[in-house]
Amino acid sequence: MGSEKLVNNAAKFVKALLDRQLPQNMHFHNLQHTQYVVNAATQIGLQSKISKGETIVLKIAAWFHDTGYCYAYTGHEDNSIAIAATFLKQENCDENFINNVVACINSTKMPQNPQSLLQEIMCDADMYHLADDAYLNFALRLKMEWEVKLGKKYSDEEWKELNLNLLIKHKYFTEYGKSVLQDHKLSNIDKLLKL
Questions:
Q1: What is the spatial distance between Cα 118 and Cα 100, in angstroms, rounded to a whole number?
Q2: Around Cβ 183, how many Cβ atoms within 10 Å?
Q3: 3-state secondary structure at position 144
Q4: Long-range contact list for 42-45, CB < 8 A, 24+ apart?
Q5: HSE on the CB side for 55, CA within 13 Å?
Q6: From the centroid of its chain, how far is CA 181?
Q7: Is 0.85 surpassed by the pTM of this model?
Q8: Helix H or strand E segment including 13
Q9: Which of 71, 146, 160, 183 has its CA 20 to 30 A from that of 24?
């Protein structure tokens, strides 16, 4: 059971859930981010020449990967997994399909440790924004979210250091990530250094 119809049902379900349950002060981890990750996963999947069935797994995982934020900030992945598994059982998906989706969501836990190509694509999609030209804007939204959700306040200098460390330590897993995204990420490191 893996079709575009299932992806559409998942998208509809997640949009309604986030609309209903996601706190208003989620400046970064919101519907916009979810859609961004779905698009990134699709793009990397295409470049990685995965099958149609694998693309379905990936898209579903991307739609559900941050739904857990509706119920808890820390450890949200476990909630996301429970929400996805429950939805997929109601859609009569087989155990193997559900396990693949769950494994993809689970692989986004920090520090990332993907065990398959699909999980590598999922991890790279979740961190695609590190290579985006608008990275500084994404970072600013995350800073605002952390202030509200975690009570963490950073000076501009501290935030710059934190971001530099993240960008330098982070590594992409897929061939596309290494050959295309990495270069863009390096230019974001350059931007940060010039700040």
A1: 9
A2: 10
A3: helix
A4: 43/125, 44/121, 44/124, 44/125, 44/128, 44/174, 44/176, 44/177, 45/121
A5: 16
A6: 15
A7: yes
A8: helix 4-21
A9: 160
